[in-house]
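Figure-free illustration: sequence to structure, shown twice.
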Amino acid sequence: MLLLAPFTPHIAEELWEKLGYTESIFLHALPKYDKEYLSEEEAVIVLQVNGKLRSRLTLPLNTDEEKVKEIALKDEKIIAFLAGKSIKKVVVVKNKLVNIVAL
């Protein structure tokens, strides 16, 4: 309820009272956060063939671009879309995507 209060103050106040609290919800502090849970260790990397989404990979953050490229080219779905085509260019955007241009 405390996190909901800044966005929907009237509803949050009503629900807060229904939960049995007598003081206003706005007299209470927001919950504390733990930085440990905010740090990401993995990135979901989108795999595209000619600009169209074809697959996704989950890899550790800041994986070497050559390693990402190598893994992307071994993906089963990517292999299927590249059948009979030649690769002209592979664009790797760190921790985001791999776009394979093939004709």
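We now fold a second protein in the same way, so the two outputs can be compared directly.
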Amino acid sequence: MSEALLRVDGLDLYYGDAQALDGVSLEIAAGEIVAIVGANGAGKSSLIRAIHGIERPARGTVRFDGTDITGWPSHRVCEAGIGHVAEGRQVFPNLTVLENLEMGATPRRARAAERQTLERVLEMFPRLAERRRQAAGTLSGGEQQMLAIGRCLMGQPRLIMFDEPSLGLAPTIVQEVFRIVRRLNEEGLTILLVEQNVMASLKIAHRGYVLENGRIGLSGAGGELLANDRVRQAYLGL
């Protein structure tokens, strides 16, 4: 595997006295899809929030492309090239689809190519092109997820972190979301995919980590983890 684009070493995170992450270490090489899977409450979203500067870890480091970004505020992390598609989509409901997308182009690194990026996003998501003047709050859940992904792409990230992108979506829309994740990776983006949908995420991941009670319990190639008896019994009901 090539040099890590993102490297997390010994990350500890607390909420008050409760420890959410305990010595978490992982790495993602440029061009990979890496899945973080585990049960609800395992610490998956806490890991995303710590990487993106929403929460400050008590110990450990986060390095992106060789630079220590531990504890940087979210806007600096975004400027560095890490995008975040948050759990629950979090679009601006009273703004139009187009205004939401334009909000995504606020990083300085993205402004020069904003028009070209917008054309790419609307080509990728024709439904958003049809509804560009519509208030985002009136879109379906699946359309809002596409908008959240498109808004993230407007910032021209090198790595995108997806936090539970399939949550609350119909099965057909879930399939479409994972197809989009795979397409983005094929186009050169590095992907960190945090998911409760273990089967779907490990099927498309090059590698995966199983997070259990704030610790990395298992790691390996996506196919290897899918074949692991412990994973199959605990998460797939097989």
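Summary for the second example: The beta strands are 4-15, 18-29, 33-37, 59-64, 67-68, 82-85, 159-163, 190-195, 207-212, 215-221.
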